[in-house]
């Protein structure tokens, strides 16, 4: 689905939810270039800057890093209207529990925080949700706005 | 001995080609915009400390262009990990200039922590930059610029500076949609 959305640049700081099923397979795929970062807000800037010539990029992080990057997302994604696409593993979320109902405070607050920031986001929890990824990415680039995918459980590499 | 910032910027002007990208921050940005207005000046990075990361994104996405980053010492302190990220990314078209004045100039000239002992040249070298050097005189800076820019990046140059002539702080422009569109248009006008 990421390839289908014409993304070949992956900017990543490892996240335990997506490490095995997403980042490792991407890292082994020669069609992708992976830029490994030291802090998540770097990735917001890298992806935003790449977008100026139409280069599509995906930032792959964990929700802790998302929280650490809110000011960068506010400035670069929202104020500057740049299409920063972020996939966020929800570390600690219970299987089959909606994030808003999670017993984990750091998970439960994520969607309300994104809503408060008026950020576009979608939950990827089951295989049925995956099909929406390319359209959401297209919309983000068409409208030059950020979009955040919340990954609710560990994806399985095929 | 220290360089005047505007003198350092004037020394850089003949070395910046039309198709190079320049990412600059704070007072260095305002001075550069006045001294060398050009379409490929990337004038706003949104959040303090992020210039090096914007520069890396631009360098990765535009491998045939050189990317100059005119950073501040307070700024790069907010994003020191980016030195390692830049090194790891292996970009050979990135030239990182740190204008070190030891203070948060636009925030009231408050001192940086450990301002007298920070070694940015050493940090860049330790992070894996291909080259790193420091300058505290204009003559030495001018004499070394051509050779520095002939080397593959990432390269760092740290200049110990004091303010020279100060140019207006036009925050409205740098954060404007017009500024971003102007850069985007220039970047895409001639793809190289």
Describe this structure in words.
The complex is a heterodimer of chains A (158) and B (192). With 158 residues, chain A is an alpha/beta fold. Chain A is 37% helix and 18% strand. Chain A contains 7 helices and 6 strands. Chain A has a 6-stranded parallel β-sheet, with helices on both faces. In chain A, helix 2 runs parallel beside helix 4. The longest helix of chain A is centred in the N-terminal third of the chain and has 11 residues, at 40-50. Chain B has 192 residues and is of the alpha/beta class. Chain B has helices spanning 5-12, 26-35, 51-61, 73-77, 81-89, 120-127, 138-150, 171-174, 177-189; strands at 3-4, 21-24, 41-42, 67-72, 94-100, 103-104, 110-111, 131-135, 155-162. In chain B, the strands form 2 sheets. In chain B, strands 1, 2, 3, 4, 5, 8 and 9 form a 7-stranded parallel β-sheet that branches. In chain B, helix 1 crosses helix 2 (26-35). Chain B is globular.
Q: How does the helix and strand content of chain A classify structurally?
A: alpha/beta
Radius of gyration of chain A (CA) equals: 14 Å
Sheet/helix structural class of chain B: alpha/beta
**What summary fits the major beta sheet of chain B?**
7 strands, parallel
The average pLDDT value of chain B, as a whole number, equals 96
The poorly predicted ranges of chain A are none
Average pLDDT of chain A works out at: 96
Give me the number of helical elements of chain A: 7
- The helix content of chain B is 40-55%
Shape of chain A: globular
Main sheet of chain A, how many strands, which sense, barrel?
6 strands, parallel
Radius of gyration of chain B, rounded? 15 Å
Tally of helical runs of chain B: 9
Seen as an oligomer or otherwise, the chain set is heterodimer
Beta-strand share of residues of chain A:
15-25%
